[in-house]
Amino acid sequence: MKLILGSSSPYRRELLDRLGLDYECDSPEINESRLEGESVEAMVVRLAEAKARAVAGRHTDALIIGSDQVAVLGEQILGKPGSHDKAFEQLKQASGQFVTFHTGICLYDSRNNTSQIDRIPFAVQFRQLSDEQIEHYLQREQPYNCAGSFKSEGLGIALFERMQGEDPNALIGLPLIRLISMLETAGLQVL
Question: 131 catalytic, yes or no?
Fold first, then answer.
């Protein structure tokens, strides 16, 4: 049985590599815009499935993993900053606050056109950060392509007061604990 990761994210690939499974990557090309009136929770689930289905046409006998993630501070969605100034602004806003990451995951079985879909929330509380601490962190890690402007698997862990959630891998973009259950339900044993 072929396993496909429907993603171009190097972070998701690193996470999936931990399971020691043979898989291929195929990047989905979908519109990731939020629909009018759509909740963040519904959006990540919809996009995770859309990503898996987008590559399904190229893999008719495979299990396809789709995942999508959104970081939320209050009512504001924190995207990938793309620049030092925007990353600084995001971390300044997050200082002392909770940021919740909603990660949608879908395992699509192209053999029988079925999907297993879930949403895994994970929250982090940021420490009170000085401008100097934020600047020092950004100079060292440069997380400009990461939602929320940090890499929790690196020095970004020093930004946090605490973490809350079932699977810390969800924070990076692929909730492995839930994925393993989905794979086993589909007949692919990880262990």
Answer: no
